[in-house]
Amino acid sequence: MNTIDNIRNIGISAHIDSGKTTLTERILYYTKRIFAIHEVRGKDGVGATMDSMELERERGITIASAATYCEWKGHRINIIDTPGHVDFTIEVERALRVMDGAVLILCAVGGVQSQSITVDRQMNRYEVPRIAFINKCDRSGANPRRVVRQLREKLNHNPVLLQLPIGLENQCKGVVDLVSMKAFYFEGRSGDEIRTDEIPADMRDQAGAAREALLDAASMYSDDLMEAILEDKVTEPLIRDAVRSGTISRELTPVFVGSAYKNIGVQPLLDAINSYLPSPLDVQNTALDLDQDERPVPLETDARKPVVALAFKLEVTPYGQLTYLRIYQGAIQKGADLMIIRTGKKIKVGRLVRMHADQMEDLTTAQAGDIVALFGIDCSSGDTFTDGTLHYSMSSMFVPEPVISLTISPQDNKSQDNMSKALNRFTREDPTFKSYVDSESGETIISGMGELHLDVYVERMKREFNADVTTGMPQVAYREAITRQAVFDYIHKKQTGGSGQFGRVAGFMAPSSEGTYEFINEIKGGAIPTEFVPAVDKGFRSCLEKGLLVRFPVLGMNITVNDGKAHSVDSSDMAFFQAAVGAFKQAYMKAKPVILEPIMKVTVEGPSEFQGNVMGAINQRRGIITSSIEDGAFTTIEAEVPLAEMFGYATTLRSLTQGKAEFTMEFSRYAKVPESLSEELKTTLREKSRGDKK
Amino acid sequence: MIPFSSVSPLKILEKSSQGALGAGNLGVLIARAGVGKTACLIHIAFDKIFSQEKLVHVALEEGPEKVMSYYSVIYYDLLKALGITDDYEYRMRIERNRMILAYLNQSFDLDRLRNNLKNLAEGLQFTPDALIVDGLDFEKTDRKVFEGLKDIAQEAETEIWLSALSHRHITEVNDHGIPYPCSQIDDLFSLIVQLKAEPSGIFLSLLKDHDQPGFPDTHVRLDPNTFLAMV
Ligand SMILES: Nc1nc2c(ncn2[C@@H]2O[C@H](COP(=O)(O)OP(=O)(O)O)[C@@H](O)[C@H]2O)c(=O)[nH]1
Q1: Do B124 and A638 lie within an 8 Å CB cutoff?
Q2: Which residues does ligand 1 sit against, CB inside 6 Å?
Q3: Rounded CA separation A439/A442 (Å)
Q4: Residue A574 has pLDDT above 90, yes or no
Q5: Selecting from 2.60.410.10, 3.90.245.10, 3.20.20.140, 2.40.30.10, what CATH number does the domain A286-393 have?
């Protein structure tokens, strides 16, 4: 069973409360990783195995992504836990990167909700094939057909039912498998015993029609199946192969049904993971070759090639730091040397382990396609490991800029130490979470993707690290940008005792339409000697960290240097660096800088009766509504709203809609602060920065 | 830069008696599947949006994401055709003047539309000058619904453009030369435009022009890729 095509690296993605934890626990139970089923947040206080952190349990959400291993019918399945919460964008994205396929859990009552839409969009971006499981068919109001329609209409999938539920709501008894045309019932204390039977008589017509629909849909992906249908020689393997190719090419979403809680349909879902989701061999992965200007290069899922692996998750355990790795190419042996590409450091593989739900298994070797963990390695999440012969990096991963920050201060010395430990840990785990000490105010500042993102880390700091901290008001991460061209011609000259400093830099700055920094060298006749040009570039670059308008970072510009002057004795890197800084200061305000603010894409979903209220409230927050979707009794409103206006929105929305609506938001882009607000904002921000300096 | 009016499919209306559909009126674009109804409707939408009129796009078959992606494809074709390089102002106009209302899972009905328009007006001060209704199944829609749409057009002082799907195998045409599926309800429409694919290109012709018959024999020829009028 040690072949790569029997590996499944999968994620389970779900809207909060659709039953991800319950389903995961059932999977671990049927694959004999755990030996009893606890109710989620059950009275026995044990909770499901994957929900490791106390905080998660308390909030009822899964924040961290871990991987756990299990085996099912000759296949090795790594379950990569995907956070359902959208504020944790980077964690979701990193998990998506290492999974080859996913199970999308949908609640038979709630259907496709706004968070599923966000996560689904991300899955599209990472091209993750998925199958859907409609859970909670036992709940009153369960309507799997409606959920299938939503898959098509809201998520743009091409869903096809592979099963039908036998009975719904409290009549939910089992499932009809449309491939074998059999009924399955799950008996015994925890549904361990599967009884296969004929399809109930009253469901035969319905099952026949659903089978027709399945054959129709599947035959699009297999000529063999198409032929077999015409000749009336359809076989189960033919259907499975067709569905598999449709799924892997992401043109088809097979849909399964059941109830995790009532132990209905979980084992067939495991069968489906084996049958329809891709193995590592079915997926093309690429790395960036740092020796070739980050050119994308394909990786081969082949144990004999040089190693390339990605650290996608760090965890602290009583035994030291645990680094989760996905091996993309080659094999890793215990005792081997690896190189961390970012730092160039060599490390030795001490312990190589595989994480089971309840224990660790020590390995001597692991190969391409595997997900394993290393102990005691000093690295960051997102780091690429190779054997040192390849200079590849996996991390072309899209890392959004933090949009919000706040000051954080420890209450005593012990908390100070603990806070540092915590920050050190978090910044390694999550590249979108940053922390630094402001050089002017001396305060520690943390920044991230939203209010909740920072909240959770502050909470973790208190709970896991025992750091007693207080926080300041959240601050929006504004940016500055220039809006027109301005010239500079600056001489930096200093004569102090011995050798002096001299450098002249001339040229112009211009807005960058892409929001990036570019240095354009048009110096003629060696007016600035080549050796000093990098110092000029560096000087300008350093100025972008804090603009002169309101002391926020400058979102790129094009700098063209076309003239200058050097002195045979007094010129140096230092002198030209300073000259560039002087030139920047000379031109910047002339280039009419403006303040930019982060604009968030906000999606609000709730009962239709609240459409008017929700729209009004977004409008008041300077939001622009782009669309409104009516579906059944629900309305989803999509809008772009400045982050600065989103503080306290959760509370407002709750009171506007009696808690019946929910919202998600993600960073969209930076946009100019409207004229009418920018004067006041300038004053506030300037006062604040003056205050910080004191 | 070329003015939009010179390439807009709405050029067809230059020849019409009133030059426009007009508030309170319904207009329909008839075509067979795959000819480009949606593209043509979106051009009508841009015509409104770019002249700073407010537009509501009502989608009955697709979610906003799809609709927006249709708009952006056509938008980039337009920029190219018109030779616009700095499009900031145009993007702002789209942002300010376009609203998409999608109705999934048969959730469209007149009361809901009325209510949504009311919310747009009250919550956002967004009062449309035109509505585009794409994807209404004329064969399954009762005359009452069209009458209701006409009422809405009059109440909201807006014009409404619809698209209707015709079929190769149904050749029914009424006395005034109006084809299926509009042959029984042509009295409700002020403008009826037909989009036809012929071997020599795509043609737009005016079948009904307010109180007058149209002139089905004069055409505007459209570029089959961009649906822009060819000169
Ligand atoms: N009726 C019913 N309840 C379920 C089912 N699966 C989960 N639940 C319940 O739904 C709630 C949320 O489940 P949980 O697994 O924590 O969801 P998660 O937030 O997606 O991890 C819990 O109270 C579960 O007991 C199901 O199939 N049927």
Answers
A1: no
A2: A 14, 16-22, 39-40, 135-136, 138-139, 259-262
A3: 5
A4: yes
A5: 2.40.30.10
